[in-house]
Amino acid sequence: MVGLFFRRPLPSLLRVGILAALSLALTFYSTTHPQSRSMGLFLASPVLAADQALVRLWGEGQDYLRSRDQLLRENARLRAELLQAQQELVKLPLIRSENRQLLALLDSFPVPPGRVTVAGVVAQDLSPSNQSIIIDLGSRQGIRVGQPVLAPGGVVGQVVAVSTWNARVALLSDLDSSLPVRPEHSNTPLLLDGTGNLRELRVPFQARDTDLKPGTLLVTSGLGGRFPAGLPVGRITAVERPTDAAFAVVRVRPLAQLGQLNTVLLLWPGTRPSEP
Amino acid sequence: MIVLTWILAFLAAFVATNLPLGPVYASLHPDFVALLVLYWAIGGNGSLGYTLVWGIGLLQDLILGDLLGAHAMGLVLMLFLLYLGLARVRRLPPWEQLFFIFLLLLAERFVVWLWQGWTTPVRWHWALLVAPAFGAALWPLWTSLLDRVFQRQTRRG
User: Is residue A238 part of a domain?
Assistant: First the structure.
């Protein structure tokens, strides 16, 4: 290269300058072309395959090392949970039929729950500017951009890039994430924005005299049509009214443990949260 | 054979950076790719080129799904700063070398943070200081491990 175009090697500072200009151009390109993230996912396939193998090995190692005492304790806890779940299950048919009657009164028809697919988490990036996970399903399994992703507790985020074998899921806490929600017992439409912090989301642009209160559960509103309505998302932890700000600061804690995801659920179009 | 070992070492560094082991690991783990670049640059006595390092950083951006160019620029500037004082760094006693490694890793982290802040309002976080500190603390172990791997390769080669 040096012999071909230049007689002497370029000074270091000039080389760094050229690379900085190239980096700027690429940054501009990646902000205007979000599909460049899919390309990265395809290139990362060998790395992700190794991550997947290590995660499996780690899980198997932990299971192997777990002591008998721990297993007995876990067994007892799971039995207790099962008993409680069985009690809840008894009530379910009653609630379901009541819900059907109410929906019929409102002249709307319940859509039966659609397909749900389980996916394993193979990689994560939890830097403040990019909070995402990578799952072990891709376009081969029919995964598409925009699909809602859930975990025990509630909504986790949505698929933002898909390659043949993997998909990237932007978490609710990602700075670019914004989800239409509403309080559980009201129809007030709200937005829930990511802050780059795994344990804190914000509801923007709320008037200082907002009637939102700490403890209120926020669920998806279904606006935009991407997420079905009624999925639990987070709980308001604080409503602050700083004297020097025009709006109230509404802090929300996501219900799903966004930083500790091993397995997630993907919803398919037409899915409604289980009744009621 | 040495080229293959380097490729495998970088692959391992990318894998370690991506592992889904929770938020504590995500905020505390050092930038293994930057540590590998530093080892190569110091051991190679200035033979590592900026363009190659830029390419490695770009690959890291692609794999992490991050803003393209952020890690590429971070690594290039880290290398530039290292080359400014390379001869001195090689002669430094181990403890002072650790401090210099910490500053270089911090500079790389800071550049990535600034670069990402161009598009998204990222906030300063304490982990930005802690991860480079862990990286510097790992440096003696890291170099002795890589010395074993690469010296064996050199002898075979």
Answer: yes
- Indicate whether A217 and A181 sit together in one domain: yes
Ordered per-residue pLDDT tens for chain A, 276 residues: 444 555 566 788 899 999 999 999 988 888 787 777 677 777 778 888 888 888 888 878 877 777 777 888 888 889 888 888 877 777 777 777 777 767 665 554 444 446 788 898 988 888 777 788 999 899 899 999 889 999 888 899 999 888 888 899 999 999 888 999 999 888 889 999 998 888 899 999 888 888 888 999 999 988 888 888 888 999 999 999 888 888 889 999 999 988 888 889 898 876 555 444
Name the CA radius of gyration of chain A, rounded. 23
Which three-class secondary structure state does DSSP give residue A217? strand
**Are residues A55 and B70, on separate chains, in Cβ contact within 8 Å?**
no
Residues A96 and A128 in one domain: no
CB nearest to A41's CB, from B65, B76, B123: B65
Q: How far apart are CA A121 and CA A130, in angstroms?
A: 16
Could you tell me the maximum CA-CA distance found in chain A, to the nearest angstrom?
A: 85
Q: Which among B65, B76, B113 has the least Cβ separation from residue A125?
A: B65
Residue A6 within a domain? no
Asked if B15 lies within 8 A of A51 by C-beta distance, the reply is yes
- Verify that A136 and A250 share a domain, yes or no: yes
Whether residues A127 and A235 share a domain: the answer is yes
Query: If you measure CA to CA, which chain B residue comes closest to A135?
Result: B20
Chain A from 65 to 94: CB within 8 A of any B CB? none
Q: Which residue of A has its CA nearest to B123?
A: A128
* Structural domain total, chain A: 2
ipTM of model: 0.84
Question: Looking at residue A245, which CATH number applies to its domain?
Answer: 2.40.10.340
Q: Is A16 on the interface with B (CB under 8 A)?
A: yes
Among chain A residues, the shortest Cα distance to B14 is held by A47
**Does residue A95 sit in the same domain as residue A125?**
no
Residue numbers of the domain that contains A72: 67-105
